[in-house]
Amino acid sequence: MRKISLIGTGYVGLVTGACLAEIGHQVRCLDIDEQKIYNLSKGTIPFYEPGLEDLVKENLENERLLFTTNPSFAFHEADVIYIAVGTPANEDGSSNLEYIFQAANNIATYATGNVIVVTKSTVPVGTNERIREIITMSGLKAEVVSNPEFLREGQAINDTFRGDRIVIGSDNQRAAAIVEEINKPFHVKVIHTDLRSAEMIKYASNAFLATKISFINEISTICEKLGANIEDVAYGMGLDSRIGTQFLKAGIGYGGSCFPKDTKSLVQIAGNVKHKFDLLEAVINVNNKQQVKLVEQALGRFENLQGLNVALLGLSFKPNTDDVRESASIVLANRLIGEGANVAAYDPVAIEKAKSVLPREVHFTKEIAEVLHLADMAIIVTDWDEIKRLPLSIYENMMRTPVIYDGRNCYSIEAVKQHRIEYHSIGRRTVMNLPKKAMVH
Ligand code: UGA
C-alpha cells in the first residue's frame, strides 16, 4: 500500500484516484474547486460514468479515498504525487499547460520531502522534464514518471482494470519501479520507456486511432458512390490481423475531449520541430467534413431547411457518457439553426451539458417520441442503446415525413426496407421507400 496524492479531480483524476484506492492504496485527491470537493466528499460525482459513483462511495466509506482543497494536507506524507489536471487546447491547437505548471508549482511549494511525480495528463513531449525543473528549482529532489492513461469514457473502469498496457516512462529506475509496484494489482502488462517516448506513445496512439476512423470514413463515402457496403468492407479488412476490426466503424466523425484535441496538438508538436504532419492534418480535415456531411446531404435532398422540423437523436460524442465536447451534435445543431430549421434534440443523459454548448433555439427533451412527433427529418448522432432499439415503426408513424439520416448505421438495410421510410446512412445504399406523395416536401 502506498500513500498517494493526486492533483485534479476531472475525468482522468477521479477515475485514477478511485481505481488506485480500490486496489488498496491510500489516496488523497486535491482540487481547487471547493464545491466539487464538497460534493465528491459526499460521493456525488460531476459527470456520468458507469460504475464510478459506486467505486467512489465504497472507497470513501472504507477511508481509502479522500477529497481536499488543501495542498499541504494532500501532500502530507505522500510517497507519490500524481498530476491529472486538464490540458485544454489553445486557439492554435497547441496544449495549454497552465494547469500542469500550476500543479508543479503547488508541489514545489507544499510538498515537504523528496517526491516522485507521476504525470497522467496528456502532455507534449518534454513537459515532464519541465515539471521536474520547476520542482527541483525549489530545492526539493524530484523524480518524474510519465504514465499516460488509455481509458475510454463510458468504459473507464473496465479499461483501467483490463487495459492492454501500462506505460511507465522515466529516466529514474527507482521511480519507475515504485510506479510499477503501485500498478501491480491491476495485472496489466507494463512497458518501460524513457520519459519522452512515453509522452509520445499517448499522442501517437490517439492519432493512429483517429487515423483509422478518418480512413474508414473516407472509404465509406467512396462506397456510397460506388454501391458497396462499408460494413462488409470494414469487416473484410479488419479480419486481417495486421489491420484489426476495432476503430473501423464508419460514422459521423470522432468527437470527445481527446481525439480532436490530441490530433491538433500533435500537429503543433511536429510543427515545433519543423515537421509538417501532412497525414494527421488530412485526418483532421476529413473529420471536420464528416461531421457536417449529413446536413449537406439533407440540403441536397430538401433544397432548403427553412421551417423544417428536425429531430436530433443523441447529443453526446458517443454512448454511455454525458460528455458533449466536440460532439458532431454541436456543429450539426448550429448549422441546422443557421439554415432556418426548427431543431428538437433528444439524449438520455447529456441534455444538461448540451444546453450550455448548443444554440439556445434548440428544444431539448428526454422523450424520443416528442422529438419525432411531426418531424420532417431525423438525424441520428449517437448510437445509444435507446436509439438503436427504437422500432422503425415509430419513425414511420410519428414523423411527418420519415426521412432518416443515420450517422451511426444503427439499423440494418434489410430491416429498413420493411418500412415506409427514406433512410440515408454512412457508406451504404440509400433506401427510398416513402410513399410518392411524401417524397417532395
Ligand atoms: C479515446 C481513446 O480511445 C482512449 O484510449 C484514450 O485514453 C482517450 O481517448 C483519452 O485520450 O483520454 P474516448 O475519447 O473516451 O477515448 O473515446 P473513444 O471510444 O475512443 O471514441 C472517440 C470517438 O471516435 C467517438 O466520437 C466515437 O464515436 C468515434 N469512433 C470510435 C468512431 O467513429 N468509430 C470507431 O470505430 C470508433
Please give a handful of descriptors for the protein shown.
8-stranded mixed β-sheet, Rossmann fold, elongated, 15 strands, alpha/beta, N-(1-d-carboxylethyl)-l-norvaline Dehydrogenase, domain 2, 441 residues
How is the topology of this model organized?
Elements (H helix, E strand, L loop, with lengths): L2 E5 L3 H12 L3 E5 L3 H8 L10 H10 L3 E4 L2 H5 L4 E4 L14 H13 L4 E5 L7 H11 L4 E5 L9 H6 L4 E5 L2 H11 L6 E4 L1 H32 L3 H9 L20 H14 L5 H25 L6 E5 L14 H11 L3 E5 L4 H5 L7 E3 L2 H5 L4 E4 L4 H4 L3 H7 L4 E4 L6 H5 L4 E3 L6 E2 L3 H4 L2
Parallel strand pairs: 1-2, 1-4, 2-3, 4-5, 5-6, 7-8, 9-10, 9-12, 10-11, 12-13, 13-14
Antiparallel strand pairs: 6-7, 14-15
Helix pairs in contact: 1-3, 5-6, 9-11, 9-12, 11-12
The chain binds uridine-5'-diphosphate-glucuronic acid.
Uridine-5'-diphosphate-glucuronic acid (UGA) binds next to helix 9.
Organism: Bacillus yapensis
Pathway: Nucleotide-sugar biosynthesis; UDP-alpha-D-glucuronate biosynthesis; UDP-alpha-D-glucuronate from UDP-alpha-D-glucose: step 1/1
GO molecular function, one term: UDP-glucose 6-dehydrogenase activity
